[in-house]
Amino acid sequence: MPAESGPEKVVTFLTAASAQRNPCIAAWLRERRGVARLRALTLIVAALLAVPALGQGARTALGVFESWGAFRDAKTARCYAIAAPDSWAGTASVKGYASVGFWPKSRIRQQIYIRLTRERGAGAELRLTVGERRFVLTGNGVHGWAQDARMDAAIVAAMRGGTSLVAESRDAAGRRIADRYALRGAATAIDAAALGCAGLR
User: Fold this and answer.
1) Domains of the chain, residue spans
2) CATH number of the 42-196 domain
3) What does pTM read for this prediction?
């Protein structure tokens, strides 16, 4: 058994039957999955703390799905799926996160927002790579959005079939910015956010 294998790799060669026959293996798998889930929850909480609070309404958790979470702010009638990067280049100066937002009162659906872990330099492009698809976002500083609703939809479609999302740019000194997000659970979190705001108008 490889010493550095994660839960996903282990499951590929340890069948459910073998885990059931060997209590030690079953306990080890549960522990590794628990560690992975705790890490995912820590990243989601970090991302959530970075989101500016709008209004005084309570923030309701709609669910945690692998490395993504879904939340609703009833006071401002918005729902969103959110995640923190699982890795980044250099030293982060702010808490980065990626979100897909729904604002029913404004008729905005699945709006992409990226907050970089460092501010990009003036004139530096913000490029988003999802699988084989590449997009150039708009915005400035640490902020990035899709250029229009059509790009939002294309990015979300790519996220549903992808395994990772990478936001890249350069800071004022020319140093690379690269924030990587795992997309496990992203599609389910986006659906939960959409459903959570379905009755809000």
Assistant:
1) 42-196
2) 2.60.40.1880
3) 0.73
